[in-house]
Amino acid sequence: MNVLFYDVVPTMAIGNATKFDDMYDLIALSDFITLHVPETPTTKGMFGVNELKHMKNGSYLLNLSRGTVVDIEALAEEIKSGHVAGAAIDVYPEEPSAAGEKHTTPLQGLPNVILTPHVGGSTEEAQKAIGKEVGLAMVSFINRGTTAGAVNFPQLTPPPVSVQTHRITNVHLNIPGSLKDINKIAVDLDCNIALQFLSTERAVGYLIMDVDQDVAIELRDRIAKLECSIRTLIIK
């Protein structure tokens, strides 16, 4: 099997995969097209009438990413015309919000179409994996301040805390001057900053900094008193 791929993020090819710089060139050559993207403003409707018409005659489309990525009505028309041979769809623009709620889609009843209910995360195996992942994420946050995978919160993945430093974690309002005020406190305390990471998400900023152990507690207390600070912790 020949694997072709396109990504907006610079990505190296692995194994026998071939990277394409133009999505439409890839679409025109592929017998099976699978979509693997998050739901963002740029991916909503990214596979619509134009993209479907660029597909190779008799090819298949698989969407297991997000329901808003594909124009379902346009896909149904292309399948009816015979241009697209079939599809496998696990996600939909609108999905049932409760058990027993009826779900309809233009793809129902069409030939060579597989529709699945988007419940892969509810299997016994998936629930075990999710529980393990959440537990590991909590431990990593407590020990390092890691927030990778957080929802609606800045994501940072720092290295382990050095035995020579303490780590300050600070959640603050994402306003101009916040980092300057925090660093000024460190300067006033003659504190060396061994490591510093900052990430923001809308109205919130998240700062991680490794500092000298002898001033870490005083530094934490002063940062916590800033008007911009929401929560300040120390990891020893």
Segments where pLDDT lies below 50 for 5+ residues? Answer: none
Instruction: Outline the biggest β-sheet.
Output: 4 strands, parallel
Number of structural units classed as domains:
2
**Beta-strand percentage range:** 15-25%
Order of helices and strands: EEHEHEHEEHEHEEHE
Globally, the shape reads elongated
CATH structural class of the largest domain: Alpha Beta
Helical amount? 25-40%
Rounded mean pLDDT is: 94
Multimerization status: single chain
Strand order of the largest sheet: 3-4-5-6
* CATH architecture assignment of the largest domain: 3-Layer(aba) Sandwich
Q: List the total number of helices.
A: 6
CATH fold title of the largest domain? Rossmann fold
| Strand tally | 10
Structural class: alpha/beta
CATH homologous superfamily name of the largest domain?
Answer: NAD(P)-binding Rossmann-like Domain
- Rounded to the nearest angstrom, the radius of gyration is 25 Å
**Separation of termini?**
51 Å
Write the layout of secondary structure elements.
Elements: E1 4-5, E2 18-19, H1 23-29, E3 32-35, H2 49-54, E4 59-63, H3 72-81, E5 84-89, E6 113-115, H4 124-144, E7 165-173, H5 178-188, E8 193-201, E9 204-212, H6 216-224, E10 229-235
Parallel strand pairs: 1-2, 3-4, 4-5, 5-6
Antiparallel strand pairs: 7-9, 7-10, 8-9
